[in-house]
Amino acid sequence: MAIVLECAALAPSVHNTQPWQMSATGNVIEVRADRTRQLGYLDPTGRQLHVSCGAAIEFAFLAARSIGRECVLRLLPDADDADLLARIQLVGVRPPTPIEQRLVEAMPLRYTDRGPYADRPVPAGLVEDIRRRATDLDVWVRTVDSADDRRALITVLYDAEATEVADDDYAAELARWSGTVGDDGIPAGAVADRWPSDRVSHVPLRDFAGHASHPSAEGRGDEPPPAVERDLLVMFGTPYDDPRAWLVAGRALGWALLRAAAVGVSAQPLGPAIDLPQARARLRHELGLVGYPQFVVRMGFGADRPRTRRRQSAQV
């Protein structure tokens, strides 16, 4: 069971808060919400906590499958205990599939890459694999391709981050969870600006300095304008907007990030678009979405390496 818990602890989480507690008794693993790690400003409803825990649940499920165990997974198994998010019971023996094995092997390789990506398209088959798995979980996946949709997303990102940085509570929370040196939060090396001066992202990426400052695509004086990087933008959403939907969105996201890492593709969340309820509602309206957006990422071939640390299994 120890290897399953260690793998689950590698899951991504909002600001690397790792908002979960896990236990293993006999052949049963339980995943609980750790409310002490819920972000007060960016996650007032606990939605992002559930998405993060959903990813950890998927990592645990895949890890158990990789050691040849059949699993019965139940989300929110106790109506009287809302913090008990999942129970995974190992009930028998069944060899893992090749893809399950590959995804577990990708767990220590997966990381959030906030730097530039190579001018190399993400394989179309990757997106289709992600969409198929998401559909199995009752999660929809949409790539943000058209000029109008990208423009709408960019506007939501700019406006949402401007709203966030105007609030002192956001600044305090960002300072608490970024530039850290311990086993949680986002270490300084993972948020430092590593973009060259001649390249900018087409979409605004979160400014962890808390100023909502972003490089301009305009040239300076006689200098040529920087190249604009147009990455693949992928949105995950659900028909409903409740704790169960948030958990399955996290499961789909966790699977997708591992599937991407298995072929060398990195990802970065576009957090301001889905941080707060008003931004999500606007994104839903602007893009004409049927359902509720739960997560948006940019994907591409990065050149960085894993930097964020995780708490030891004994701590979670």
Give the topology.
Blueprint lengths: L1 H7 L11 E6 L2 E6 L13 H20 L2 E7 L8 E10 L4 H9 L17 H13 L3 E4 L3 H19 L2 H10 E3 L5 E2 H4 L7 E3 L25 E3 L2 E7 L4 H19 L4 E4 L7 H10 L5 E9 L16
Parallel strand pairs: 6-7, 8-9
Antiparallel strand pairs: 1-2, 2-4, 3-4, 5-10, 10-12, 11-12
Helix pairs in contact: 1-2, 2-3, 2-8, 3-8, 4-8, 5-9
Largest sheet, strands/sense/barrel: 4 strands, antiparallel
CATH architecture of the largest domain: 3-Layer(aba) Sandwich
Order of strands in the sheet with most strands: 1-2-4-3
Separation, N- and C-terminal Cα atoms: 14 Å
The number of helical runs is: 9
Question: Overview of this structure, please?
Answer:
The chain is α+β, with helices and mostly antiparallel strands and 316 residues long. It folds into 2 domains: 2-110, putative nitroreductase (tm1586), domain 2 (NADH Oxidase); 126-300, NADH Oxidase (3-Layer(aba) Sandwich), CATH 3.40.109.10. The protein contains 9 helices and 12 strands. Helix 3 crosses helix 8 (243-261). The radius of gyration is 19 Å and the shape is globular. The mean pLDDT is 93.
